[in-house]
Design a protein that fits this description.
alpha/beta, elongated, 7 strands, 6 helices, Maf protein
């Protein structure tokens, strides 16, 4: 079996990848995730995922560990009316984002790249999920900011956490909002010869009484 390397330290991505039963190791990319001149959410997310994957592949090659390694990199952004909302720089920025998203629809876009570290063969794809926030009053915004959950989240919220109370509707892949679209990823892994739940085949059969 190929050795899968997740190019992310995100607890959410590690949790989601574990759910599909593919063994993996973690190497965190040091790529700068600032927006720079990018103004198109999907293009930016895909570009970031490619750069992260190449960064980890280069490190593996430098350490002579690249043989048989498949690198998975992802980047998730929030966009409202074409404007990208990254991770807030401080509490005031998080508050600004929450007010902007209040009562409206926005897109959550994840760009993913799978890259063979030894050959450079790569495949990239993007997944978009539509999310609508409820109207947020002053009390709810203040209470959510006090949880500190928004501080390192794109769009200043986490749907799998306290941020669930902010969301009115989701159209598309829920797991994409968490940071890793499972269905799309499963198909990509299969194309690279890594089958989800394949570890089940190697389990010892249970012994009867």
């Amino acid at each position: 079996m190929q050795r899968l390397i997740l190019a992310s330290g995100s607890p959410r991505r590690k949790e989601l990848l574990a759910r599909i039963g593919v063994p993996f190791d973690v190497m965190v990319s040091g790529i700068d995730e600032s927006l720079g001149d990018h103004d198109h959410a999907e293009t930016f997310a895909l570009a970031m995922s490619r750069e992260k994957a190449r960064d980890i592949a280069a490190r593996l090659q430098g350490e002579g560990l690249h043989a048989g390694c498949l690198v998975l990199a992802a980047d998730t952004v929030v966009a409202r009316e074409g404007h990208i909302l990254g991770k807030p720089v401080d509490r005031a920025d998080a508050e600004r984002m929450l007010r902007l998203l209040s009562g409206s629809w926005h897109d959550v876009i994840t760009g993913m790249t799978l890259l063979r570290a030894d050959t450079g063969e790569a495949q990239s794809a993007a997944e978009t999920t539509r999310v609508k926030f409820r109207e947020l009053d002053e009390t709810l915004i203040r209470r959510y900011l006090e949880t500190d959950e928004p501080s390192d989240k794109a769009g200043a919220y986490a749907v799998q956490g306290f941020g669930a109370v902010l969301v009115e509707r989701i159209v598309g892949d829920y797991y994409n909002v968490m940071g890793l679209p499972i269905q799309r990823l499963s198909g990509m892994l299969e194309e690279f010869g890594t089958e989800p739940l394949s570890w089940l085949d190697s389990r010892e059969p249970e012994q009867g009484i």
